[in-house]
Structure formats: structure tokens, C-alpha cells
Design brief:
It is built from two helices and four strands; from the N terminus they run αββββα. The protein is of the alpha+beta class and about 80 residues long. The strands form two sheets. A two-stranded antiparallel ribbon has the order 1-2. Strands 3-4 form a two-stranded antiparallel ribbon. Helix 1 runs parallel beside helix 2. The two termini are about 15 Å apart.
Length: about 80
Amino acid sequence: MEDVGLALGDALRVALGQDAPIARFGEAHVPLDETLSRAVVDLSGRPYCVFEAEMPSVILGNGYQVEMTREFFVAFAM
């Protein structure tokens, strides 16, 4: 999961480029079923990730370990 996060983070950085006419940051609160999700994205070039969710220790599908979700987002941010 960490390698996938690193690869997607690099792909996003390349896709945005240096001269992209986008806002530096954005945020959203989204109600999803029985929870309220909040995401804040800051494209300042100073990576940081706060992941405050409890992940159960279960395996989905063909081997996705849910508890590795945090590692994905930290790697994506870095």
C-alpha cells in the first residue's frame, strides 16, 4: 500500500506541474452513511498527513489489509 501511495502522489505532482492555475488549498466535509468525513488538501510543497480514523484489522477481497489505509495516505502525502 505504501508503494501505491508513493506512486500516486508522484503522479499527482507531475500532473499538476509547476504552473497549474489552481488554488493552493481546499477542504470539504462530506457526510457518508453514518460518519462525517473531512479532507483538507494543501499543495504548498510541505508534506504532512494527519489520519485520525480507527481501522479494523480485517482483510478485504484478495488481500487488502484495511489497517494499511493510514500508510497509503501518509505515503501519498509524502
